[in-house]
Every structure is written in C-alpha cells, then in structure tokens.
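This protein record is not my work; I was only asked to verify it. Take the sequence as given and treat only the tokens as open to question. I have pasted the whole thing underneath without changing anything:
***
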Amino acid sequence: MLNCCLYFTPNVTHPYYPIRSSHVSLYTTSSTVSSLADSAMAAAANSVRVAAAQMTSVGDIATNFSTCSRLVKEAVSAGAKMLCLPENFSYVGGMSGDSLLIAEPLDGPIMQKYCSLARESDIWLSLGGFQEKGHDDAHLRNTHVIIDDAGNIRSTYSKIHLFDVDVPGGAVYKESSFTEPGKDIAAVDSPIGRLGLTVCYDLRFPELYQKLRFQHDAQVILVPAAFTTVTGQAHWEILLRARAIETQCYVIASAQAGKHNEKRESYGETLIIDPWGTIVGRLPDRLSTGITVADIDFSLIDSVRAKMPIAKALEGLISTDRPIMLDASLAYKCCMHCSRIAFS
C-alpha cells in the first residue's frame, strides 16, 4: 500500500523563499512522511496572519467607527492577529485644519472606543494617523497608535516628516500649519513580530526605515497612509517595495482610498510586501473598502537576511545619533526639485 505524503513548493521563485505549508502538491512514497509532516507543523508555527484595511474615511466619527468595526470583524474571521488601519481612520474633514476641531488626548473618548473594540474582538490594532491633541489649541500630532488585544495602548509614534508639498498639477499642502512634528522613533514587539512605526509621508525618507531595521531591530514596518492620487500613481508601490527590499522587512501599507469629500481624494492600493519585495497581499480593487491578509513568515525574514547580509556590510555606516528629521524648508525644496524633474 502506498503512503501519501505532502510535498511543499514555494509560491515565489526566488532563492530565499523557504518551504511554506500553504502551497502543497501530492506525490506518493513510502518514506519521509514523518519528517515532512514535522516540517509542515514547524512552518505553520513560524508564521502569523496579519490583515491590512482600506477605507474611505469621512467627516463623521461614528460612521468611520462603524466601518472600522466591520473591518475588524472581517480580520478576526480571517484569523488575523492584528489589523492595520490607514491614516486618518477616525476622521477626514473638508478643510486641512478641520482635524483640530476633533483632536483629543489619547485617553479621550475616540481612542477609548477603539481600545474597547480591540479588547472585545481579541485582536491587536494599528491605528495610524490619529488626531492627537497637541501642545496648544492650534496644533495636533499625527500619531500612530498600537493597541493590544487587551485594549491597552502599547506604543505611539508621532509623524516626524510633515507633508508640506506643492503637488504638481494639484493642491498645495502644508501639514505643518496645524501639526507639530514628532521627534522620536518607535518600535514595539507584537504577535506579528517587532514593529517599526511610520506614517504616510515618512515613506519618502529611507533613513528612518534604516534606523528602524538596523538600530531598533524591526521585522515588520507599518505604513498607514493617505497618499494623494497624483503622488500615489507615481510613487506609492515603488517606494513601498524599495523600503521592504532595503530593510529586509515586511511592509504593511494600509491606505485611504477614493473620494472623502468635494475637496479631498486618496489613491488607495493597500499592500502587504515581504522582505524580498514581493507583494503578498493586495485588494482586488484599488479603491474598494475591505481587507487583505497575508502570513508573516519569520523563517523568510531570517533566510533573506542570512543569505544577503546587508546588515553586516552597513556596520559603522548607520549612525546612532538622534532620529532623522529633515528641516521643513529643506524637505520642501527637495520635494519641489524632485517634482520639477518628474514633471518636466
């Protein structure tokens, strides 16, 4: 009698992709059944599922919370240990300074509702781009909040690089007019690995990502965002894959999508990218509301880093001084220079 054995094949044809339990073909043999079964169990134990959400926030906090609650239920049903929501998940106003009207401390009622949602749903939440009250009534912080499955705030990061840009052919944005920049880099342990926290426009500054990987040991970098349609079409996927490849981290990019109101529209295209730069999670529709899921494979992270040891080559090159923070005027000049090149 022939014994049936599982033979595992990777779903991506690059040299560092390990055996994965989710891609199986059958052949018959009388040997190696036990060892391959053990490998399957080990592979399953060495990965954990994450979900990335996409939505179109509006200027109504209750409506947005209802949407987020539905996305949380979908993530739980999919077996995810963490759901990552996009920047401005709780509110998008009609004017750039409208967020000041609803900004509140982290112990305020809005964030407490999301803490309760995480606790009741038994899932971790990445809430990127919360309107946290600033040091005065004229400023807020664009804060990325990590909540655990008990409803506790585990870590926060305030966006360092503010979006002060004249988008070619579009509007002029000056986030610094009502937002105070953060100063500190943040990384935190979670069920899906050690997280590096960023927000939206931070994506254009690779030094921050290098520090998260090489100084703070990040395995997964979160990029909640609300890219404009113009910048998203030109740069979104390219930048995300570059950050994943150069840091050898998973990158989870949850995006706002579609038309929020008469004056604001976001690009969408929520993505999950592995350390090799392969897109492993993507919604079927760039502008739809929903989630995409993928398994964070820790053996893949280890394999890519071991076989292409860029960390060793960078020893001594990554400084240990304060976090990268570009002067706002210099950032503006750099962006305008790049825009002239791209659109000339």
